[in-house]
Specification:
Length: about 160
């Protein structure tokens, strides 16, 4: 793992988990909102340049669901969604995730935790795959580059949202 907390860090953990960490110069409540409010999600959860979010639905409560669909410049869609299993605003939430084109080998469970220290919020995501093979399959995709691009977008959105 790299030492700069403002860069995306990914690390295998256990037999089928992936740990993803990124820090932001913004208060925890704003970062939590950016992860859970459609008006903010639509501005940063985009992947590579030229992609847009054409569907963003979030029912942030235990048992509630979410649905995202991104579209590339050629009009191809990438969609995914799931259910919220835990919500402890603004500290953490847990949800399932399944992509329409199941490139992750089945449903994953993701825990996202937010910790603020001196105005810097660190977001830690723990992704639990259906198997170690599924985790390795996901890591062979451009997932890391897409996540890095989106989280860099988030950094810019947070800067714009700060008073």
């Amino acid at each position: 793992m790299t030492t700069n907390p403002h860069l995306l860090r990914m690390k295998r953990q256990g037999d089928k988990e992936l740990l993803i960490v990124r820090a932001f110069n913004a208060p925890m409540g704003l970062v939590f909102d950016a992860y859970t409010q459609p008006r903010l999600l639509k501005r940063w959860l985009l992947g590579p340049p030229g992609w847009t979010m054409v569907q963003c639905e979030v029912d942030l409560k235990v048992g509630g669901s979410y649905r995202y669909v991104l579209q590339d410049p050629q009009g191809n869609n990438m969609g995914w969604g799931g259910k919220f299993l835990e919500v402890d605003e603004p500290n953490r939430y847990v949800h399932t995730e399944l992509f329409d084109q199941d490139w992750t080998g089945g449903e994953t469970t993701i825990t996202i935790e937010f910790v603020e220290v001196d105005g810097v919020t660190t977001v830690t995501q723990t992704v639990v795959y259906s198997s170690g093979e599924a985790r390795e399959m996901a890591l062979k995709t451009p997932m890391e580059d897409g996540m890095a691009e989106s989280l860099n977008n988030l950094d810019a959105v947070l800067s714009e949202e700060l008073p």
